[in-house]
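Final report, Chapter 2: Outcomes

The project's central promise was a pipeline that accepts a single protein chain and returns its three-dimensional structure in a standardized token representation, suitable for archiving and comparison. That pipeline is now operational. To close this chapter, we reproduce one record exactly as it appears in the project archive, with the input sequence first and the structure output second.
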Amino acid sequence: VKEEALRKELHTTRLALIQKVCTNHNGDNDRNDEN
């Protein structure tokens, strides 16, 4: 049970990190397009 909870927490953290990176990357692309 403890291992399952840890795995779920890691998965959630990974998704949050990926979403943050994608958002920052898309924001950079938008600024580059404007310039």
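Archive annotation: The chain is about 95% helix and 0% strand.
This record, like all others produced under the grant, will remain available to the consortium after the project formally closes.
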